[in-house]
Amino acid sequence: MWAADQYFLVLGTRFRVRVEVESVASEVTRLLLPFVGDARPVPGRRNLALVSGGGPEDPAHCLLVDDRPVQRAASWTPLLAHLVAEINREALDAARSFAVHAGVVSHAGKAVAFPGTSGAGKSTLTAGCLRAGFDYVSDEALCIDYSTGLVDPYPKPLALSQSARRLLALIPPHASGSEREEEETLSVPADLGAQTAARPVELAHVVIIERRHGPTELEAVPGAEGMGALLSHSFNHYRRPVDAFALTSDLVRRARTWRLRTDDPLEAGRLLWDRTRREPGP
Amino acid sequence: MSEERPVGPPLEAAETDIDGRISLLNPRTERVLMLNETASDVWRLADGSHGLEEMTSLLAQSYDVSPDEIRADVAAVVRTLRDEGFLPPEGE
Q1: Could you give the angle at the alpha carbon of B20 between the alpha carbons of B18 and B25, nearest 5°?
Q2: What is the mean pLDDT of chain A?
Q3: What is the pLDDT of residue A46?
């Protein structure tokens, strides 16, 4: 018996998520609220389910994808992270927009994107920017509509590790949580005092992240570096290489490219908030 | 125009110039090549009307250096552009 049976529309792909436990179902709804869709069955959707442990012989809870168990855990926290990761992977794989691995925030309709690989600090910097006043667009992907050239919000829950939460002053400096240090837990923008960008926004700033000790610095760099960063971190430019090349060329002409050197996401967020509002872009 | 064989003209490619730096997409291999400012100047001269030595001489004048200082770099850029399929192979 399911406590919840919901449909979510993520970057054009529909997911059905069923959850056995009421409190977990509420958390799934809270995390995926921007993607809540209608229940109209559509072929090709993915079916995911969170089921509770079966008893003394099998105490672990389980994530099912298309009725196959893919992950087991004693607590719900890692399973929720896996559920979101599974949806994210499938949605990006099927995305028709030009999608770049990047953190993205916005203010007054202008987006700031930080392309980077996993572990580059995108989510942490995104969260630092939200704390500074930006709206949330995504901590995972810059999704640009080929026809409009605008950034479509992809507000998946932010995945922040314990160490990232400490850097962001979301937990005390010496707090030791029950989670392992690098295990990610999920947050929504409201948890960080921010809101989600409601409409497509224009890409105004491309920020290349360079993590290093020392003062936080932001330096203007040639647009060609921004183009390289967008193309080299794209998930799907190979599907439409000529269009992706033309789109990124057009995007960086209309945007400013920066190099951000930092190891402090809060300070970096404040600096970006200040500079990008003072110099809103071409 | 010297007697040496000209470099280029370029093969089919998508090209964009951003802040003086050229980026190229080879539509056959889907490879993207992002050139720095000097390599961009080499690309601009590789239009089929200059030989390698003439390109080197023109760039040396432009940068106010001796041809010997940049000859190897210019040759390396041309080699890369050929290897990546943006210029016809040497001798064609």
Answers
A1: 55
A2: 91
A3: 87
Q: Which of A231, A242, A253 faces B27 most closely, judged by CB atoms?
A: A242
Sign of the dihedral defined by the CA atoms of residues A241, A245, A246, A251, in that order: positive
SS3 A98: strand
- H or E element at residue A141: strand A141-144
Positive or negative: CA dihedral A181, A182, A186, A188: positive
Query: A54 falls in which pLDDT band (50, 70, 90)?
Result: low
- CA A102, CA B63: separation in Å to the nearest integer? 38
The Cβ of residue A72 has, within 10 Å, a number of other Cβ atoms equal to 16
Nearest to A127 by CA among A170, A84, A89: A170
User: What tokens appear for B77 in the block?
Assistant: 């850029």
Q: How far is B30 from chain A (nearest CA, A)?
A: 6
Partners of residue B41 in chain A, C-beta under 8 Å: none
The CA distance from A46 to the nearest CA of chain B, in Å, is 31
Q: Give A220-261 as a 3 state SS string.
A: ECCHHHHHHHHHHCECCHHHCHHHHHHHHHHHHHHCEEEEEE
Q: Do A224 and B30 make contact, defined as CB atoms within 8 angstroms?
A: no
Please state the separation of Cα A222 from the chain's center in Å: 26
> How far is residue A129's CA from residue A103's CA, in Å, rounded to a whole number?
10
Q: What are phi and psi of A221, to 5 degrees?
A: -130, 165
Beta-bridge partners for B6: B51
Strand residues in B5-88 grouped as ranges (E): 14-18, 21-26, 31-34
User: Who contacts A22 (Cβ-Cβ below 8 Å, separation ≥6)?
Assistant: A3, A4
pTM of the model: 0.90
The DSSP bridge pattern shows strands A256-262 and A202-211 to be parallel
- Assess A220–B contact: CB distance below 8 Å, yes or no: no
Sheet holding A13-19, edge to edge: A4-10, A13-19, A46-51, A61-65, A68-73
Of B19, B21, B30, the CB nearest to A241: B30
Residue B59, pLDDT score: 97
Dist CA B6 CA A15 (whole Å)? 58
